[in-house]
Amino acid sequence: MNRFTPKQMYIRIFLLLSIVFSLIIIPFTVFLSHQFSKYAAAEINKLTNDKLNQTLESTEFMLKKLKAYGLSIYEDQNIQNWLVSETKDPMLATAAMQAMTNWLSNESFIFDAYMINIRTGEAIDSRKGIHSLDSFYDQGIVDKIRNDRPKFLQYFNHEVVGESHMALIVPSNPSRHDYNGYLAILLDNRLLQKYLLQFNQEIGIEVVVLDRQGNMIMGPLNSELSMPVLSSSKNDRSGMFHLDIDGEQWAVNYAEMKSQPWTMYYLTGLGHLKSEVTSFQRKIVISSLVLLFVLLAFIFWNSRRTYRPFSQLAMMIKGKIGEELGTSDSSRNGEYAVIRQGIETMAETMDKINRSIRNHRHLIDGEYLRQWILHGHMNEPIREYILKEFDLLTYKYIQLAAVRIDSYSSFTEKYTFASRKLMKYAMGNIAVEIVRSRNWSGESVDFGGDHLIVLLGRNERTLEETLEVFGEIAEQIEKWLGIRVIVGISDPRDINDEIRSVYDYIYELTLLKFITGSGKVYGERDFEQYSDLVQPLQDDSMLEELIQNVRLGRVEKMKVLLDQIIEQMQTLTYAECKFRLTLILYTLMKAFKQWRFLKTVDGIQNHLDRFGTLNEVRDWLYVELQEIVTNMGRRKSSGRKEELVTEIVEYVQNRIHDPMLSAEDISAHLSLSVSYTRQVFKEVYHSTLSDFIWDQRMKNVIKLLETTTWSIADIAERSGYQTKSHFYTAFKKTTGMTPSEYRQQSVEYPAAR
Q1: How many CB atoms lie within 10 A of CB 337?
Q2: Helix (H), strand (E), coil (C) string for 430-481
Q3: Do the Cβ atoms of 715 and 668 come closer than 8 Å?
Q4: CA 271, CA 182: separation in Å to the nearest integer?
Q5: Going by fewer Cβ within 10 Å, which terminus of the chain is more open, N or C?
Q6: What are the pLDDT digits (tens) for 101-124?
């Protein structure tokens, strides 16, 4: 019996849910079908009325325009000269004919035009030339001018040679004043109907214009159909009614024209539309039935899949724990135990996630501190976060210290990328702990590469105590981690000063060891002592070319350039030569700081004293540069491309806020050529380096738009865009909308994000 009980349960659940869904879906389908029918009728009426008004306005506009055009023709001087002439003058007739031709060539809706001179008894047809009034083929117009001249400028229906045209006689005659000359204009009804009425008999749409007597002015209907339309219309100026013409139902929208005593009727055949609505209603019903069937099938499958395993699980628990769980109550207890265990597991997982967030809080803190340092100043959101999370801004002064790893190439060879991050994290912790032990505020930021930055909040401007503290930090890092570091410390700055230039400056301070050969901690006064030795060369184009050839591994070209550089110094004095060599070696050291350049040196100048001639310096330097080429080649072929790309990705993400970030900066950081850096990145990442930087900037922008209330200008600046125009262009190219539109959409439709 117990064996079949679970099946009966899920079948009962299935039947119950089937009844519930049927009672919901079937009435809803009927209601939806009825509502759709009402909605379709309302929309058809609204659309028809809109089309009627649009067509009516277009027609009235065109008729007014043609009236104005007729008046302009009538006022033409050459035409006036002929119309008021009291004698027949072939010259005036020729000029009038030419003027009329020019006018009609610019208006395609005019089919024909007559100029009629009552005194001379002549008529000029724009198509057939000059005639006498008695022999003029369109006597209908002549009779209308003589006997029934219109009181106002009104169009009338005129038939000539079996064709119907709307006609206009200029001038009008409200006071029954006789004129010597008249202009009669015949419009092309076919063109007017084609471009103004735009009826379509194939889909059951017809447009007709009738006068008050029921005569057809424009439209495709036969004259037999005009009277049913006219007789069924109401006295209102506009409205809508239904009409049965030859067994076919029509919806008729009508409106009177303002400028003419005519009424426009817009007829929509309902037979086709009703069949379409009925077809769609049928589709709604069929779709609902299919949906109901799919839902019932899903309910059956889900009920069977959901509830059947509970009994199977209960049997498994019974087999593991004992026979005492064989009752139905015990089975329910077993199912409850499983659910409880799942909740406990989920709670434990959430605890792990919370611990992970707390453990990685330093990553978020580092992101905000990097933005501050790279931009040099704080916008309001950055200031708010730093005030909330740190106490740096409670101090009057800020100091920056760059802690650079000495012999970084040995460090990279000894540790993997992940291990290097952990070692630098440990270095930052040591520095912060020692700083805070002095009751100062301190935070460390890893910028990737060979250094990290420590920010100190202080209320005093003294530098000596800071030098002492960082001397202790360097010793402790070497003691506990076995890593020798060089430290560059800035003078205390006001908390609101620009600090980007300070960051670049203190990193330069750490490079003084290359010149002095000793010391671990440098202050700004140390840089002043050696400032003349670290200035860039005035003409360094040849040296730059040498550096590029080393990075590209072109040994022969490198040797030629080195010979040329040494040869240029042959005529210098000893002091000048030594000074220039110092600048050259310092430049090479900065270009290849990742490699163990001058690894045995105790200072540039002391090392140069060991050589007796420039040729000895050249030979030694050639060996050092060749070793760099060899090491770079070994690195390229060592299969560490994935780790190189990982380092590139971290470097980009750490400096995405820097508007000056480029492929050249990344290549210089890795001491590799730009082309090789781009090649390796594309080979491993399957994307160009430039596209990756673009993508990371844009992801940062989108994240900030969705998760912060920062101004768009702040977001653009903090994502590394130098100008607002460049930012807006890049964002719209990527997303197809402006930042404001994207932020609004992300607020309105958060689930879509």
Answers
A1: 15
A2: HHHHHHHHCCCEEEEEECCCCEEEEEEEECCCCCHHHHHHHHHHHHHHHHHH
A3: no
A4: 49
A5: N
A6: 999 888 888 999 999 998 898 999
